[in-house]
Design a protein that fits this description.
It is a single chain. The protein is an alpha+beta fold. It has one domain. It contains 3 helices and 2 strands. It starts with 10 loop residues before the first helix and ends with a helix. The mean pLDDT is 79. It comes from Ramularia lamii var. lamii. GO terms for molecular function: GTP binding; GTPase activity; translation elongation factor activity. InterPro entries: G_TR_CS, P-loop_NTPase, T_Tr_GTP-bd_dom, TRAFAC_GTPase_members.
């Protein structure tokens, strides 16, 4: 669906972006969380408003 609307590069954020404005503009407005577990790890995916220059500071 993201690729059909020319937003293929946002395919991972697209899954978490629920607001119409987020999908149309390709930006994150509201924070979203997705948690899942594998046999070895517990993973939390976070989509939050921000700038790519600050991304390295968000990894914990």
């Amino acid at each position: 669906e993201a690729a059909e609307l020319g937003k293929g590069s946002f395919k991972y954020a697209w899954v978490l972006d629920k607001l119409k404005a987020e999908r149309e503009r390709g930006i994150t407005i509201d924070i979203a969380l997705w948690k899942f577990e594998t046999p070895k790890y517990m993973v939390t995916v976070i989509d939050a408003p921000g700038h790519r220059d600050f991304f390295k500071n968000m990894i914990t």
